[in-house]
């Protein structure tokens, strides 16, 4: 409340509460300042878990707070960064909870390049720094191709061009089409799922990711991060054939090989039939010539061997005679070895009998039995000695306990006599008394009672109950 002596020089109706004043400013700003375009540099950019963007737009002379809500970001392909110069469309407003002036951003464009181009460059730098474009991760195309997977739309001319080229160039390969969207909302996710399905299928020797030409907006699905990571994670070699030769997408950088057109991709994925037939003819001629030359060489060697080879019967007689000689020598050598080993065996047997462990074992058994008897005697003696010591200790303990009890009884009697001497009951028996109020409070001053107060006087042999008739105070010296 205002002080009564305080004189007002204005109408009290003109006083605003803070919230009313902020609401008035909010309405004034939104109703009088139109939606406008601003150019400046982004600073203090933040994106909390809510998905909204908060930042400041500044130039060399001032700055203003900005907020761009998540729903307004659905057409924005790039992520704003500190230091980026942008052009934005915004509506001015006042955030009443803090009293802050701010701009609600509806559209934002990077200066110098378009929205999609900025997003393309951002993702390109990000994936390049992560190593997704590195040559060391590129897979080689297979030499032998039996099945070719094509990730594209069944409605376009791309698949027809690929089929036409393969029928002329390499009709031996099977073509599997993984049909999916190649343009529009959600097409990047569909393409990534198709690449994953084709790779997981495991029967394709090579995959062709293809689409016809178009604008940057038409080809944007091939610039999405989800598709780039699906291509990088695939184990099957992938050829990208997107748009025309001048069109370049993120998928081209990540793929194992890039073809300028879908038809060129089909040529890269397979060998030429005519070239194969030509190579086959040359290989057949070379093989035939090599076989004929080898046969001629073997025939010459066979003729030379037949001229230098003795007759069969003569050679057989020589081998038979040689076999008889070897058999005689073997029998003689076996007898000598057997006799020698028998003598060694007899010698070892005699040595073994001399070193027999039976006598040693019997002696050690007798020593063990003697040690066992001595150990039992020692144990019995130890047990008897311990029992005697236990009995002596028990008697000593009983005497100590009896002596301790007698000493404690004497102390108890002395303490009882002392307590009886100090007992108030003993004092009362000598003629003294204790006066108490009805609540058993000890009466130690006349100030605690007045005429008519009931008191209880405790004597040595009973209680007296009385009523105060007169109070007399003693004078202090």
UniProtKB/TrEMBL annotation:
One of its GO terms (biological process) is DNA catabolic process. Residues 132-465 form the Exonuclease VII large subunit C-terminal domain. Coiled coil: none annotated. One of its GO terms (cellular component) is cytoplasm. GO terms for molecular function: exodeoxyribonuclease VII activity; nucleic acid binding. It catalyses: Exonucleolytic cleavage in either 5'- to 3'- or 3'- to 5'-direction to yield nucleoside 5'-phosphates. Its EC number is 3.1.11.6. The keyword Nuclease applies. The keyword Nuclease applies. This is Exodeoxyribonuclease 7 large subunit. It comes from Bathymodiolus thermophilus thioautotrophic gill symbiont.
């Amino acid at each position: 409340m205002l002080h009564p002596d305080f004189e007002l020089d204005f109408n009290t109706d003109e006083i605003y509460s803070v919230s009313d004043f902020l609401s008035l400013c909010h309405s004034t700003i939104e109703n009088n300042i139109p939606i406008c375009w601003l150019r400046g540099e982004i600073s203090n950019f933040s994106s909390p878990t809510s998905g909204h963007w908060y930042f400041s737009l500044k130039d060399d002379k001032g700055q203003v707070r900005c907020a761009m809500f998540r729903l307004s970001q659905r057409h924005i392909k790039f992520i704003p960064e500190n230091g980026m110069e942008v052009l934005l469309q915004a509506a001015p407003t006042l955030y009443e909870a803090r009293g802050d002036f701010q701009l609600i951003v509806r559209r934002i464009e990077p200066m110098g390049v378009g929205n999609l181009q900025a997003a393309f460059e951002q993702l390109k730098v990000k994936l390049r720094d992560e190593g997704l474009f590195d040559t060391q991760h590129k897979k080689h195309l297979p030499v032998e191709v039996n099945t070719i997977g094509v990730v594209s739309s069944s409605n376009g001319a791309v698949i027809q061009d690929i089929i036409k080229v393969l029928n002329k160039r390499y009709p031996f390969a099977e073509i599997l089409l993984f049909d999916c969207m190649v343009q529009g909302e959600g097409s990047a996710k569909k393409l990534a799922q198709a690449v994953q399905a084709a790779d997981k299928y495991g029967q394709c020797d090579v995959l062709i990711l293809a689409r016809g030409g178009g604008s940057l907006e038409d080809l944007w699905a091939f610039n999405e991060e989800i598709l780039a990571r699906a291509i990088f994670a695939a184990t099957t070699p992938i050829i990208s054939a997107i748009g025309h030769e001048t069109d370049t997408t993120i998928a081209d950088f990540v793929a194992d090989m890039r073809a300028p057109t879908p038809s060129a991709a089909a040529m890269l994925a397979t060998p030429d039939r005519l070239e194969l037939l030509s190579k086959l003819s040359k290989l057949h001629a070379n093989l035939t010539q090599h076989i004929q030359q080898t046969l001629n060489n073997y025939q010459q060697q066979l003729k030379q061997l037949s001229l230098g080879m003795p007759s069969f019967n003569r050679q057989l007689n020589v081998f038979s005679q040689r076999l008889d000689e070897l058999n005689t020598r073997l029998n003689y050598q076996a007898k000598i070895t057997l006799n020698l080993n028998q003598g060694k065996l007899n010698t070892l047997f005699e040595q073994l009998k001399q070193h027999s462990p039976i006598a040693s074992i019997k002696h050690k058994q007798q020593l063990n039995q003697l040690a066992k008897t001595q150990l039992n005697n020692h144990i019995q003696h130890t047990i008897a000695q311990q029992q005697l010591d236990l009995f002596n200790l028990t008697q000593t303990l009983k005497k100590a306990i009896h002596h301790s009890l007698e000493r404690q009884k004497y102390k108890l009697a002395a303490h009882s006599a002392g307590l009886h001497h100090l007992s108030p009951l003993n004092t009362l028996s000598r003629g003294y008394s204790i006066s108490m109020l009805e609540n058993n409070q000890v009466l130690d001053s006349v100030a605690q009672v007045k005429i008519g107060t009931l008191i209880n006087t405790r004597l040595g042999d009973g209680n007296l109950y009385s009523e105060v008739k007169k109070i007399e105070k003693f004078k202090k010296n």
